[in-house]
Amino acid sequence: MSPLEIVCVSHNAPPMNDAEALCTGRLLSALVQLGAKVHLVTGDGQPALDPSIVDEIFDPRIEVTTVLAPSGRFHRASSMIRYGYHGTHVEWMKPAILATQQVLAKLTKPILMTRACPWVSNFVGYYCRHLSAGWVAHFSDPFPPHEWQSHALSRFARPINRIWARRILKQADLVTVTCPNAIRYIEEKSGIPFRDKAMVVTHLAMPQIQPGNFKLERKPGEFVIAHIGTLFMRRRPDLLLNGAILAMEKHPEIRFLQYGHVDQGTLDLARSSPAFSRLEIRHIDNLSPRDAADLQAQVDVNVIVDTDLGLHYSPFSLSKFPHAACTGKPMLMLSTEDSEMARLTRLHGGGEFVPFSTPETVADAICRLYEGRNHHRLVKSRNPYHDYFSRGRIVQPLFQRIHVIS
Questions:
Q1: Which of 114, 249, 277, 360 is deepest in the core (most CB within 10 A)?
Q2: Contact residues for 3 (Cβ-Cβ < 8 A; gap 6+)
Q3: 3-class SS shares of the chain: helix, strand, coil, % to 5
């Protein structure tokens, strides 16, 4: 039996340094390790990872075609106009289509896989699907961002986005999402029932990477809770920051650290607090996965905050969740009651789950973690999250499902 041939289109992939790039690299590497031959068509994304990290997380057997977006004044102006309807990197779409068609034409029965976000990668798949034996379209965030963001042009872009989403849902042979609630959300927004050809492909845990030189400086007796990664207004910094302040007022040994990108609205919110000086906010745009892993292993509590869409459920599954859970350190998780984080906390434990509510509720949870210290810590040898976020549970079924559609 000839090996499965997969052509993956993902604008964001290693060596680019962002969450989607890292998730794509882990998934493709896992497919290669199961015996697939993988060819990646990707963009020349910046900022880039340190080459030593790429060597550790990205299988060198993956063939890579890097497609550059056209430059020049005309292309920049065109992409700005089209951005409102097609999202980021739309100028990359045409050259990526041509490059993907060339790769597919050389293979016998290739499977086409497209990873969105950004949304443009699925557009490329739509125009190249006829050259493949089957098309697997992935929704990493569960719908085009105009559905849950409030840009000036969002209300005009949403109808166009829905048209494109329906095309993808109808034409793809398999649609993958990161949690069951994403299927529910996409069906509600698009009006297209597609769960008969949908599959949940949870984020994989970050493979073990070599420790770096990052060392968390702390005073004796300090209890450090940290949110590592991007903090923006829809992640309810009002609850997290004010809850941390209340907890620190009750227990001065508690220290709160935000390490990573912080948007302007969140910074303004933090500065408006009389207790701003108690918060330790380190704004870092290009956060190294090595530094993030080092920090996750050194803090006392890892904070994970979902995106609040104002719904009674969450359609998201955060890529940082498996990284934090697999450290075995206690976690503080903020989301809705009907969410993947709430479900997994009830199933496996490992921390305090807090629904989006009040700063006092968050403060109480932080205080329980402090007062219980290692009560929520998971023993490495018995950490259930290692199995839940493993390649065998996640990628093996995907591998088998792709074989069926091929």
A1: 114
A2: 35, 36, 37
A3: 50, 20, 35
d(CA 6, CA 248): 51
Give the per-residue pLDDT at 94: 92
Beta-bridge partner residues of 304: 333
State the Cα–Cα distance between residues 382 and 287, nearest whole angstrom: 30
Q: Which two tokens stand for residue 77?
A: 């102006």
pLDDT of residue 84: 58
**Cβ-count burial 244-279 (b if 16+ within 10 Å, e if not):** bbbbbeeeeebbbbbbbebbeebeebbeeeeeeebb
According to DSSP, the residues that pair with 5 across neighbouring strands are 37
How many CB atoms sit inside 10 A of residue 177's CB? 27
For 352, residues 6+ apart whose C-beta sits below 8 A from its C-beta are 330, 331, 332, 333, 345, 365, 366, 368, 369, 376
Burial class of residue 46 in the structure, from the number of CB atoms within 10 Å of its CB (0-12 exposed, 13-18 middle, 19+ buried): exposed
Host H or E run for residue 257: strand 254-260
- Angle, helix 73-86 to helix 154-171, in steps of 10 degrees: 80
pLDDT reported for residue 80: 59
Q: What pLDDT, on the 0 to 100 scale, is given for residue 81?
A: 55
pTM (2 decimals)?
0.93
- Determine the Cα–Cα distance for residues 304 and 306; give it in Å rounded to an integer: 7
CA–CA gap between residue 254 and residue 244 (Å, rounded): 9
Length of the chain: 406
| Tens digits of residue pLDDT in 323-374 | 999 999 999 999 999 999 999 999 999 999 999 999 999 999 999 999 998 7
Q: Which residues of the chain have pLDDT under 50?
A: none
Rounded alpha-carbon distances, angstroms, from residue 232 to 265, 306, 383: 7, 10, 30
Q: Tell me 338's DSSP state.
A: B
Residues 6+ apart with CB under 8 A from 137: 114, 116, 122, 125, 168, 169, 172, 174, 175, 176
Looking at residue 66, its pLDDT comes to 96
